[in-house]
Amino acid sequence: MIKPTVAMTRVVNSCVLLELDGHAVLTDPWFTERWWLRRGEPLGLRVPDLPPLTAIVVTNVATNHWDLRALRRFPAKDDTPLYVPARGMARRARALGFRRAERLTWGRTLDLAPGLSMTVVPSGRTAVWPNNAYVFTTAGGRVVFFGGEMGEVAPLERYRAGRPPVDLALLPVNGLRSPLGPRLVMGPGEAVAGASALGAKVLVPIHDAHGDDPLSRLFRPTGTASDAVALAGPELRVTNLPTGERWELDA
Fold first, then answer.
1. Angle at the Cα of 19 (from 4 to 158), degrees rounded to 5?
2. Residue 237 has pLDDT above 70, yes or no
């Protein structure tokens, strides 16, 4: 019998391998760099290293969350559910062979496997495209919030109203912004405030590193995971997890 556990391995950026009571879920796949888009940190896992996946979930359309070049090489396209926030993304995934690709709208709840459910939470928009966040609930009652492109605290406060606290929050911390535009994702202060709004016991920062590439001339980070560690109060533990290191909640 599989021992109930919540564990994760950071791959890079907001690409994470979650293990939820024995079910593996991959978030925001990004495995291949481009000349104009670099990781800024080591790649924690390669596509051949992945276990059989219960699902792949994607928060937004940007290449470092939605790596079609890597997904093309994914071996189990036929059987693996792939959930995305936009119709065009689902069409492109099906064209690659992901027969079970599906667009999920805000507020949708579905069962990924026996004893594992997922709810889609609003996460703002990138230009005209919606961004999804995902909440996973295990049979043992553990709740994990994943907001790969979350930019504001208010949607987390609205989600939490009338709901129990989450056990683990995964939220962005580098606060990318352009000189003339709004912040794209949370900085460390917003991540700590957002995790606290969710009632989380633990925050694992994601969307942290930013590579030296042409995009870095347009979008600058305004914080780091280390900043989030320094900002957290005694009620919230911030775990600054290196890529490639498997970490277990409450181990």
1. 95
2. yes
Using an 8 Å Cβ cutoff, are 211 and 63 in contact?
A: no
| CATH class (in words) of the domain with range 6-246 | alpha beta
Q: Give the amino acid at 20.
A: L
b/e 142-167 (16+ beta carbons within 10 angstroms → b): bbbbbbbbbbbbebbeebbeeeeebb
> DSSP 3-state assignment of 56?
strand
Q: What is the DSSP letter of 42?
A: -
Split at pLDDT 50, 70, 90, the class of 2 is low
First to last CA, the chain: 18
Q: Which amino acid is at 138?
A: T
**CA angle in degrees (0–180, nearest 5) for 18-133-212:** 75
Per the CB < 8 A criterion, the answer to whether 155 and 115 are in contact is no
Residue 182 CB contacts under 8 Å (≥ 6 apart), including other chains: 151
Lowest mean pLDDT among 22-26, 152-156, 177-181, 203-207: 177-181
Element holding 194 (H helix, E strand): helix 188-197
The SS3 call for residue 10 is strand
pTM above 0.90, yes or no: yes
Both tokens assigned to 122: 């609003």
Q: Encoding tokens for residue 145?
A: 């919030």
Give counts: helices (H), strands (E), the chain.
5, 14
